[in-house]
């Protein structure tokens, strides 16, 4: 639908909803804006940084990319179909079972606590950059034979053999989506807490990933736990191992809520590391946003 | 808007090893997408394996059991643990140090006659089908060195055993009913009529091509 209102009309509509201008909600514009020093004084005046004669001084330069007549670079290089949309694709830098086992053996990861992306990034053995469209960790099966630990691990992508390796040792693996804002918080929690910003509530996966995270075969966090149980059994039949009898262990069954980013912390909280204090929102509207509960509607 | 709390809501304690052991209250944070809301009837304990193998391999009640050779029940693909013996050996072929040192070849072995997990009517058929892979003692041997990894070769062995049992376990087609037999007969008779009519027409064509004298001879029956 085309924009029905002009800029002025939009502004008027906005102003109608805003609170009245009062002494309490008016402040100086401290960023005064860069004052151009061009055309003033000994150093900004005379030719004003444009040089002598020619295209440069006379505002007659050709378009960006023009190379004087020969075929320009941006037209010479052919398009390759395998690069199409490369700048939009999501990447999952891998982390192998071998690396994981090594980290656990060297006490760099505690296997008696749930392992998630924050734990992996804190070890500094695994790095990822959210700005490069990295959407999380991909657990690969290299080191299948050497893997021994019983862990509760949460990754963003897992191959079938990696899932088999974790489950055959009595562990639990879940695949889980985080949006970039939540990822930034997870990848470096200390830096995030120092910003003094409330913990974000994690968004649900986009359409192209919804199928992946709802599939029990991938141990997706949005799939039915009963179907996951069934898939665990079928995978054990496929690879020829027996699922070990695991006594009820709360640590292994600990899972974050789909809106939760950190274990034990809720969206909306502000963690103050210096004073060792957590601030929780009191305003009902904000609380409702962060808690995101299905309220029983009163008729 | 925000309220400061004197003590943390959540105890972040430092254990003797120096890492944070987080203790979590059972109630916890629950949004509209929590597991209780999405799947209220599902059992959250995914590590509980007690009921699963019973579903796939229900224990047989002796009172209700029919003689096994009469029913043609399908093989459901379940292979109980301990029913196959595995042997891990060196693979052959190229591959340098890896193939020389690592036991990536997998051999699976089981005794067909004492395999309860295969329906009884399939066992003799399987023996017949896989004659060349069965030892004198009645053990079926399946080996695989398809991939570089032992666990993938093991999976390949299991896959092949299941495939063998399924091919051997194709049920006999049911005997044809009277209506079906009748239908088939009628079809055969019609086809025969068409064939004879065609034959006659062809014969007539050939006769008409022949010369007058030949036709005369044929007519008079000399």
TrEMBL record, chain A:
Its Gene Ontology molecular function terms?
structural constituent of ribosome
Alphabetized UniProt keyword annotations: Ribonucleoprotein, Ribosomal protein
In this chain, composition skew of type Basic residues spans 32-42
SUPFAM superfamilies on file: Ribosomal proteins L15p and L18e
Q: Which residues form the Large ribosomal subunit protein uL15/eL18 domain?
A: 96-174
Q: What is this protein called?
A: Large ribosomal subunit protein uL15m
HAMAP family from the xrefs?
Answer: Ribosomal_uL15
- GO CC: one term? mitochondrial large ribosomal subunit
Q: Which Pfam family, any one of them, does this sequence belong to?
A: Ribosomal_L27A
Q: Residues annotated as region Disordered?
A: 26-67
TrEMBL record, chain B:
Q: Which GO terms describe its molecular function?
A: peptidyl-tRNA hydrolase activity; translation release factor activity, codon nonspecific
Against Pfam families, the record matches this protein to: RF-1 (PF00472)
Report domain Prokaryotic-type class I peptide chain release factors positions: 78-207
The UniProt entry, under InterPro entries, shows:
Mito_Release_Factor_mL62, Pep_chain_release_fac_I
Q: What is its EC number?
A: 3.1.1.29
GO cellular component, alphabetical, reads: mitochondrial large ribosomal subunit
- GO terms for biological process? mitochondrial translational termination
Q: Which residue ranges does the record annotate as region Disordered?
A: 199-222
Q: Give the record's family classification.
A: Belongs to the prokaryotic/mitochondrial release factor family. Mitochondrion-specific ribosomal protein mL62 subfamily.
Q: What is this protein called?
A: Large ribosomal subunit protein mL62
Source species of the chain: Lingula anatina
């Amino acid at each position: 639908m085309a924009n029905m209102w002009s800029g002025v009309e939009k502004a008027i509509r906005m102003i109608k909803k805003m609170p009245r201008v009062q002494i309490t909600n008016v402040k100086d514009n401290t960023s005064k804006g860069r004052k151009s020093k061009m055309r003033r004084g000994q150093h900004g005046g005379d030719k004003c940084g444009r040089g002598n004669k020619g295209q440069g001084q006379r505002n007659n330069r050709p378009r960006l990319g023009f190379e004087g007549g020969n075929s320009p670079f941006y037209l010479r290089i052919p398009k390759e179909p395998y690069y199409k949309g490369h700048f939009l694709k999501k990447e999952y830098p891998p982390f192998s079972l071998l690396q994981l086992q090594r980290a656990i053996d060297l006490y760099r990861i505690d296997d008696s606590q749930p392992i998630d992306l924050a734990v992996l990034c804190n070890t500094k053995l695994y790095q990822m950059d959210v700005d490069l469209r990295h959407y999380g960790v991909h657990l690969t099966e290299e080191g299948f034979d050497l893997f021994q630990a019983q862990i509760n691990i949460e990754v963003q992508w897992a191959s079938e053999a990696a899932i088999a390796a974790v489950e055959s040792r009595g562990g639990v693996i879940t695949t889980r989506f985080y949006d970039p804002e939540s990822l930034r918080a997870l990848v470096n929690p200390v830096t995030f807490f120092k910003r003094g910003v409330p913990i974000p509530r994690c968004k649900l996966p986009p359409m192209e990933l919804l199928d992946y995270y709802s599939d029990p075969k991938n141990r997706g966090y949005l799939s039915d736990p009963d179907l996951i149980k069934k898939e665990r059994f079928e995978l054990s039949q496929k690879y020829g191992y027996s699922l070990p009898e695991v006594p009820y262990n709360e640590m292994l069954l600990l899972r974050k809520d789909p809106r939760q980013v950190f274990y034990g912390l809720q969206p909306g909280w502000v963690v103050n590391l210096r004073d060792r204090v957590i601030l929780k929102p009191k305003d009902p509207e904000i609380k409702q946003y962060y808690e995101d509960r299905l309220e029983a509607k009163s008729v | 808007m925000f309220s400061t709390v004197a003590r943390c809501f959540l105890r972040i304690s430092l254990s003797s090893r120096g890492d944070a052991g987080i203790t979590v209250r059972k109630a916890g944070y629950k949004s509209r997408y929590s597991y209780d809301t999405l799947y209220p009837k599902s059992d959250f304990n995914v590590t509980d394996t007690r009921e699963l193998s019973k579903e796939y391999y229900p224990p047989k009640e002796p009172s209700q059991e029919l003689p096994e050779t009469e029913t043609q029940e399908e093989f459901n693909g379940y292979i109980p643990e301990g029913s196959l013996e595995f042997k891990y050996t060196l693979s052959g072929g190229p591959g340098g140090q890896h193939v020389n040192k690592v036991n990536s070849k997998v051999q699976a072995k089981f005794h067909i006659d004492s395999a309860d997990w295969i329906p009884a009517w399939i066992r003799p058929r399987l023996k017949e089908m896989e004659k060349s892979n069965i030892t004198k003692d009645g053990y079926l041997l399946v080996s695989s060195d398809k991939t570089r990894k032992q666990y993938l070769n093991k999976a390949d062995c299991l896959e092949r055993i299941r495939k063998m049992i399924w091919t051997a376990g194709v049920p006999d087609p049911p005997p044809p009913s009277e209506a079906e037999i009748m239908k088939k007969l009628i079809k055969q008779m019609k086809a025969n009529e068409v064939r004879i009519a065609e034959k006659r027409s062809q014969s007539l064509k050939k006769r008409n091509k022949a010369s007058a004298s030949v036709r005369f001879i044929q007519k008079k029956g000399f």
